[in-house]
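Q: Could you fold this chain for me?
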Amino acid sequence: MPLSLHSNAAEIVAHRGYAAIFPENTMLAFQRSLELGAHSIELDIHHSKEGIPVVIHDEKLNRTTTGSGYVREKSLAEIRSVDAGVKFHPRFAGCRVPILEEALELLGGRYGLQLELKEGINEQQAKGILHLLGIYGMLGRTMIISFYKSNLELMRRLHPEIELGFLTSDIIALEPIAELGRATICLDYHIPLKYPKIIKEAEALGLDAAVWTIRQAQTARKLYDLGIRRFTSDIPLRSDLSPL
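A: Sure. Below is the predicted structure, expressed as structure tokens.
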């Protein structure tokens, strides 16, 4: 399971599979980030034209792949035909856009997962994701995260216990997030550096606090000293928050 945030241990979450050094949201990135010691991975979900959850950050294929156009307008076969590695570096040519099931199989109920819903989803899609998490033994190891509170409310209605995380790059009222139950406030790391009281304020409401996206080890260490224990990072970090 993800490490307890009420301990002194830090949980290192590989953002898109350590996106600073590997082609983001690819199976190669996820495999390598786990080999480098990440406790959890963070990935992003969109749905294909058929409604299959695929792992890609943008709503379009253009930035990270050799394809173009909206993911939701493409069949799975079309999505799988593009290269998701070569734009990052030619040596990664041949990487494909994964389906969610591939990532869940890799995690195998042994690692943590932050699953970001990049689009507003409907009940059928939410049930499909929860079903897959259950099949692969990941319900107790996953935090569903989103900038869309409506997604989290839907997930809570469908599952009373799965961890939820609200993403924000602004200081917001924490009470509505706490009302979700078993929830985490996922903060742009600049927020607790500028407003460290938010960590204690979250704790007082029963919320955990996590940060994204770390790109320097010294930043992580500053946040650790403020009370943060969960770090979503673009760079590999050891559990003591030193760089690899």
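A (continued): Residues 49 and 74 are 5 Å apart (CA to CA).
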